[in-house]
Specification:
alpha/beta; 7-stranded mixed sheet; 48% helix
Length: 204
């Protein structure tokens, strides 16, 4: 059983991904998105590419040497999946992920406005976990669950891919804990509006 669980776990190192080309990773993600119906994203420290403005995407890649124009284009192309009504998305973002100053204050305000606009899509649930929310054990990393079959966990040096049903179930349980503490709908939009307004005031 231990060997089976190990075989169902895959490590994708960041250096290897960069050698192959980050645009290749976008094709892999697009394939997962094509074959999945329900998506759950827990975003601890920054905003995922599916929700990002072009400027935010470029800034997220700025620390990696090379030309990332193809990767940026593929990330933007992938965003079309959000408009596929046959798929359901739940995004949970911590307040610190939204506020992390990856771009200038005015650009971050635009990014936050974009998040608020996506809350109106009927197949997208976007929740915000406020900094003062009592969530229990502190989350350690960003993760995504595709249907109930694959969970991916991101750390600074790469990505772990879990296919063992027990590992996937563990991440679904963790996700449900954070989801219960998140604000959705008009409450989330109000919080996002407040954050964007404060950023615009600070940049004046």
């Amino acid at each position: 059983m231990a060997l089976a669980r190990l075989a169902a776990t895959e490590w994708q190192g960041a250096r290897g991904l960069r050698r192959k080309g980050l645009d290749k990773k976008q094709l892999e993600l697009a394939g997962l998105e094509k074959t999945s119906t329900e998506f759950r994203f827990f975003l601890l420290s920054m905003i995922t590419g599916l929700l990002s403005t072009p400027e935010y995407i470029r800034a997220s890649l700025a620390h990696i040497p090379g030309d990332h124009s193809r990767t940026v284009a593929k990330k933007l192309d992938r965003q079309q999946v959000l408009y596929d009504r046959s798929k359901r998305f739940t995004f949970l973002l911590t307040e610190q992920a939204i506020r992390w100053p990856l771009v200038r204050s005015d650009a971050l305000a635009v990014q936050i406005d974009h998040l608020a606009s996506l809350t109106h899509l009927p197949n997208v649930r976007l929740g915000v976990i406020p900094l003062d929310s009592q969530v229990g054990p502190a989350p350690l990393n960003t993760f995504t669950v595709y249907d109930e079959r694959i969970a991916t966990v991101e750390i600074s040096t790469g990505v772990m891919v879990f296919r063992d049903p027990r590992d996937v179930a563990s991440h679904l349980q963790e996700f449900a804990t954070y989801e219960a503490r998140a604000q959705f709908g008009q409450s989330a939009r109000g919080l996002l509006q407040d954050l964007a307004d404060r950023l615009r005031t600070s940049s004046e």
